[in-house]
Design a protein that fits this description.
The chain has 292 residues and is an alpha+beta fold. The protein contains 4 helices and 12 strands. Helix content is 21%, strand content 20%. Helix 2 packs across helix 3. The termini are far apart.
């Protein structure tokens, strides 16, 4: 009898232990499984999906400088070379003044500076003057000191001026004919913005006045192999349809110096098309060239 009781008690104890073990382990195994299952099986509804929408186009804002003197708004078909020629400036200056990274990429509606920056347009940093930077000198010594032309380079924001012939007036350049051939076509405001001069292929083309080469190439449609000279702040001259160019950009040239050879590039015959531009506007070269 006592053996039966012991055995029964043992069975009860084992059952209780198993029951307690089951109760203790049940939340540890089931709860995480249910949580993971809910995360995986949760249906994805349209409300939970973020759909990327294209950004609305930015409103077009007219640049502040549009229409102001010294600025130009780019039109369809424009190039920096054309804009420079029409405004009496070098295309390289336009690139620098407007911080243009790619000169071959300008956009319609873009507003460009086409006049040299002035000091007030540039950022100026003011530094305090210390005693160590000021040299004391008698007033009389300063007044009697000879004045010398400064040879220091232009400060940032200022533009070095092109070579200017002796005399600063418009008519002080002492122009000469760029070629000795006969005039084929005269000046016309609409049809011919210069004069066409005949000749044979290879004939010399010379600079009509002292100046600096601001363009040498074939990047302007209708002009072929073209050279543009800047003579001063007022005048440019253009020499078109050449077969060979003898000078490079930024090169200083003298009046009468050979700069090209006559040809028929982008033209129907051998000729030199010669233009005089006053502040970018075509003017009749016959009014500036000497009589023949």
């Amino acid at each position: 009898m006592s053996g039966f009781v012991r055995g029964g008690v043992g069975v009860v104890l084992v059952a209780l232990a198993m029951g307690l073990s089951g109760c203790g382990s049940k939340p540890l195994t089931r709860a995480p499984v249910e949580d993971r299952g809910a995360a995986v099986s949760k249906p994805v509804t349209p409300a939970t999906v973020a759909v990327a929408k294209p950004a609305a186009p930015a409103p077009v804002v007219a640049p502040d400088n549009a229409g102001k003197a010294g600025y130009y708004t780019v039109k369809p078909g424009d190039t920096l070379i054309r804009i420079g020629l029409d405004n009496g400036q070098s295309h390289r200056d336009l690139v620098r003044w407007n911080n243009i990274e790619n000169p071959n990429k300008i956009e319609v509606g873009q507003v460009l500076r086409v006049a040299p920056p002035v000091v007030s347009d540039t950022a100026v940093t003011t530094r305090p003057i210390t005693n160590s930077t000021v040299a004391a000198a008698p007033i009389g010594a300063i007044a009697s000191a000879p004045t010398k032309a400064s040879s220091a380079p232009a400060s940032p924001g200022q533009t070095a001026s092109a070579p200017v012939a002796s005399g600063s007036g418009d008519d002080d350049l002492n122009w000469i004919w760029p070629s000795g051939g006969a005039v084929l076509a005269g000046f016309d405001d609409v049809k011919n913005k210069g004069v066409d001069i005949g000749g044979a292929a290879g004939d010399p083309v010379v600079a009509a006045a002292d100046g600096r080469v601001v363009y040498a190439g074939a990047g302007l449609r209708g002009y072929g192999n073209l050279i543009i000279l800047k003579h001063n702040a007022t005048y440019l001259t253009a020499y078109a349809h050449n077969q060979a160019l003898m000078v490079k950009e930024d090169q200083a040239v003298k009046k009468g110096q050979k700069i090209a050879e006559m040809g028929n590039s982008d033209a129907d015959r051998v000729k030199l098309h010669f233009e005089v531009r006053r502040q970018g506007k075509p003017v009749d070269p016959a009014k500036y060239l000497p009589a023949r």
